[in-house]
Specification:
The structure holds 2 protein chains of 2 kinds. Chain A has 3 helices and no strands. By secondary structure, chain A is mostly helical. In chain A, helix 1 runs antiparallel to helix 2. The longest helix of chain A has about 40 residues. The relative contact order of chain A is 0.10. By secondary structure, chain B is mainly alpha-helical. Chain B folds into 2 domains: about 80 residues, no CATH class; about 180 residues, no CATH class. Chain B contains 13 helices and no strands. In chain B, helix 7 packs antiparallel against helix 11 and helix 7 packs parallel to helix 13. The longest helix of chain B has about 55 residues. The relative contact order of chain B is 0.10. Classes of the chains: A mainly alpha, B mainly alpha. Chains A and B meet through helix 3 of A and helix 9 and helix 13 of B.
């Protein structure tokens, strides 16, 4: 059990570092999602299932959806800009 | 006022530059239509449903530049070339200004590099310092589950020992956040509502998004899977919402799950399908009713603190679905606020319209 906890915590630190060192934004969002999932497992082991539920629903679900949405929008705007410039 | 005149000239030039596009004729048509539509638009902007066709239907994504000035634009047009219209002093001042501008551009690259190195160093040092302080503080904390920990005080004892008796909820977390400390949750719900209102003010336009996302049809497999899964996600969210006083969960997590189920459905089938069920009007009115209900029922606890008043609703047998007095309706109202806020944020960011 202690080994499992250390594994999870190590993965957490790894995720936190990897988010800041990833070049691609989409992979950063996916790593952030996995961070939230592992965090919710840790909350469960700390005997707070309420927090675990909220972490999984908000951290891994909604935040990532909004991040991905913003990335999609930025890409669309850049495409539109480059199209407009290409026409000229 | 020569300076004001000069400013006006610059502004006119800028406006001319903005309007000078490849299709000037259609642009002028749009301008005329814009003048005609102005009053109508302003009026219809205040209403919830706007069916009148407006200028926005004809706009393409490339019409919006997000305030980023194109590189092709010649700045000298704005600052240097209009010396014929202004007197000599100002022309000299403008020439000096543009000369300084050129010098600045030469030196800017070197200075940018030094500041970049400086700020990288500062941010790394700051991060290391903050991490060190936090780890130091963490090492001073009591062990997890330590009986001598200062959190084991009379408040904790009261909540654990008399919680079920006082509130009728077997989930002590729900008892605390919706009964003893109901004002905290009220504040959180209002924070979410304020965030939604802010996003509506910033993003929502009378005619949908300014940046129209290209509607791509999602793959058949994805639509089929989401059609299968989303009822179960909805039922799971409702289960968590309604059992908040018995098992872990409650308004926030259940509402978040419901909201993400709605967003998932909107991603795969388009927001139009969700809009038939949940229009902008319905969304705002239900959020407001839920908040108003919460504020009326528990607003008094801002004044009298955590001691609470008896609601008059019988607490029932702890462990039953219908027990816990006001906790179930409060959970439902918080869930409505959270779910609709989450869906509203998604819809506003993706389409500019709920």
């Amino acid at each position: 059990m202690v080994f499992f906890q250390i594994l999870l915590l190590g993965f957490l630190v790894f995720c936190a570092l990897a988010v800041s060192f990833t070049k691609r934004i989409i992979s950063a969002v996916v790593i952030f999602m996995s961070y939230s999932i592992v965090m919710s497992i840790i909350w469960l082991m700390l005997e707070s299932p309420d927090l675990a539920l909220t972490e999984a629903a908000v951290g891994a679900g909604i935040t990532s959806v909004i991040f991905l949405l913003v990335i999609k929008r930025i890409n669309t705007m850049e495409e539109a800009r480059s199209n407009a410039r290409g026409k000229k | 006022m020569p300076e004001a005149k000069n400013d006006k000239n610059k502004f006119d030039k800028f406006v001319n530059w903005v309007n000078a596009d490849e299709d000037i004729s259609s642009r002028e048509e749009e301008n005329i239509a814009d003048d005609d539509n102005d009053n109508r638009n302003d009026k219809s902007r205040d209403h919830f449903d706007n069916d009148s066709p407006s200028i926005c239907d004809r706009l393409e994504p490339e019409d919006f530049h997000m305030g980023v000035v194109d590189e092709e634009f010649d700045y000298s047009e704005m600052f240097g070339d209009d010396s014929g219209r202004i007197d000599q002093d100002q022309a000299a001042a403008l020439a000096e200004n543009s000369a300084r501008r050129v010098v600045l551009r030469k030196g800017v690259r070197d200075r940018f590099r030094t500041t970049q190195v400086f700020f990288t160093l500062v941010s790394v040092l700051l991060t290391i310092g903050i991490v060190g302080v936090l780890l130091l503080a963490l090492s001073q904390m009591p062990q997890f589950g330590d009986p001598a920990s200062p959190t084991n005080n009379e408040v904790y004892e009261r909540y654990v020992q008399r919680g079920v008796e006082d509130t009728g909820a077997t989930n002590i977390v729900a008892a605390i956040i919706l009964d003893y400390r109901a004002f905290d949750t009220l504040g959180e719900a209002f924070v979410l509502f304020t965030a939604l209102i802010g996003v509506i003010m910033l993003v929502r336009t009378s005619c949908g998004s300014q940046f129209i996302l290209v509607e791509r049809t999602q793959p058949l497999m994805l639509r089929f899977m989401i059609m299968l899964i989303s009822p179960f996600i909805l039922i799971y969210g409702i289960y968590i919402l309604l059992n908040g006083h018995l098992t872990p969960g409650g308004g926030f997590s259940g509402g978040a799950i419901l909201g993400s189920a709605l967003s998932l459905y909107a991603i795969s089938f388009g927001a139009q399908k969700v809009r038939t069920l949940l229009s902008f009007k319905t969304l705002l009115i239900s959020i407001s009713i839920a908040l108003l209900f919460y504020a009326i029922v528990k607003g008094y606890s801002f004044v009298i603190g955590a001691s609470g008043l008896s609601s008059g609703i019988p607490l029932g047998t702890p462990g039953n679905l219908f027990s816990g007095g006001l906790i179930v309706p409060l959970n439902i109202s918080v869930g409505i606020v959270v779910a609709f806020t989450v869906y509203g944020l998604y819809a506003l960011f993706s389409e500019g319209e709920v």
